[in-house]
Amino acid sequence: MLPTILITTYFFLLGIVIGSFLNVLIFRIPKKENFITTRSHCMSCGYVLKWYDLVPLFSWIALGGKCRKCKARISVQYPLIEGLNGVLYAITFLMKGLTVETLLYCLLFSSLLALSVIDFRTYEIPVGFNYFILALGAVRLLADLSGWRTYLFGSLVVSGFLMILFYATHGRGIGGGDIKLMATCGLLLGWKLIILGFLLGCIIGSVIHLIRMKVSDAGRMLAMGPYLSIGVAISALWGERLIEAYLRFLGL
């Protein structure tokens, strides 16, 4: 029990540290700003943050959500992204153990989290995230060459359907970034899990967006990336169990 608690804590701490970097990507990529060499700074006054201002979660809490110098409000997005990424890492370890799959899924979830926020705000999925997920899928394929058909078919089954939809609607039915996202995630998850993830994403997206249209007068146009990402994450962690439960329900 103690080693499990310690490793889970380690994964959570690792997750919040990487979550801090995700916040940098979320704010800077849409603005075409350098996210590697440019120092972290206050968005209001330009104050260059010291190391003790950058401790994930804890610095935001200690500063009361305000800039140390100008006292401008710091977005609550910072601790939310850091905390959520940490929780996802901890859950992934608890579900999958110390495996290559755990590492790949943790990095996948970080990518999905960052691209979801960007897509929700800009209706665009930066292609760099899809390249990164493609690399994760290639590692998964090489680590399990005996199941190569599962992964290659996974990269085509949903993305192929979406490609047909894209051309049939002249690009109005689905975005190109969503097609690439399903192709790369399918290579990582395999065909069964990516189909389930796609279906879950569509259901979740439909329900949430209908509620948003009713409550906040949101338009009909929606960013599918966040909802597809939620579906993929659920499928990656619990997909096998959901599929088995469904087959038992059908008596198969």
List the helices and strands and how they pair.
Layout (H helix, E strand, L loop, with lengths): L1 H27 L29 H5 L14 H20 L3 H23 L4 H17 L4 H21 L7 H14 L1 H26 L7 H27 L2
Q: Percent of residues in beta strands? A: under 5%
Give start-end ranges of low-pLDDT stretches.
Answer: none
Number of helical segments with 4 or more residues: 9
Return the domain count.
2
Q: What's the shape?
A: globular
Mean pLDDT: 91
SSE ordering:
HHHHHHHHH
Would you count the extended β strands for me?
Answer: 0
Report the span from N to C terminus: 37 Å
Helix content: over 70%
Q: Classify the secondary structure makeup into a structural class.
A: mainly alpha
Biggest sheet: strands, sense, closure? none
Explain what this protein looks like in three dimensions.
With 252 residues, this protein is mainly alpha-helical. The chain has two domains: 98 residues, no CATH class; 130 residues, no CATH class. It is built from nine helices and no strands.
Q: What is the gist of this entry?
A:
This protein is mainly α. Helix content is about 70%, strand content about 0%. The two termini are about 35 Å apart.
Descriptive keywords:
252 residues, mainly alpha, 2 domains, 9 helices, 0% strand, globular
